[in-house]
Amino acid sequence: MKTLLKIIGIIILLIIAYAIIAMLAFSKDYHFEKSIVINASKEKVWQHAGSLKGFNTWNPFAKADKNVVITYSGTSGQVGESYHWKGNDQVGEGEQTVIESVPNEKLTSQLHFIKPWEGEAKGSFILTPEGNGTKVTWAMDNELTPMMKLMKPMMDNQMGKMFGQGLEDLKKLSEQ
């Protein structure tokens, strides 16, 4: 019994130590990015990454709820284009608005998460020539709350999976 209590005590101390280290050591500024090389021209890739409607044909986050409701506004691929989504607990609710568009090169958007938590982030797709193809870099930047700092390693893992899945789907669409 004493051994079991010691093990539980050590586990609790390790969790507390991790929490303190994470809150102090991890920056509040969060940046995540993932890239892929697609065997297609920038113009062809841009058809699927240069607008929010195009993005939502391969957006892995929206695919988590087949009944997600998406409402678009603004001119496709132009600054001010936006969409509002509302879905299940996995997808939540939020808005995304294009804040910068350089055709065939870069699309930047502001994300406003409403549910399950309130938050802001900035996302971008950057297209650069790479050999006979196009390198696409998908990036996201936001500010972490102290509680989110604790979850940073899990966030990196989840973001890696979702961005990887999305970029693979973009690759398939663009190489058709």
Can you tag this structure with a few keywords?
single chain, 176 residues, alpha+beta, seven-stranded antiparallel β-sheet, 5 helices, 7 strands, 36% helix
Notes on the protein architecture:
With 176 residues, the protein is an alpha+beta fold. It contains 5 helices and 7 strands, in the order αβααββββββαα. It has helices spanning 2-25, 42-49, 52-55, 146-150, 152-174; strands at 29-38, 69-73, 82-86, 93-102, 106-115, 119-130, 133-143. Strands 1-7-6-5-4-3-2 form a 7-stranded antiparallel β-sheet. A hairpin with a 3-residue loop joins strand 5 and strand 6. The radius of gyration is 19 Å and the shape is elongated.
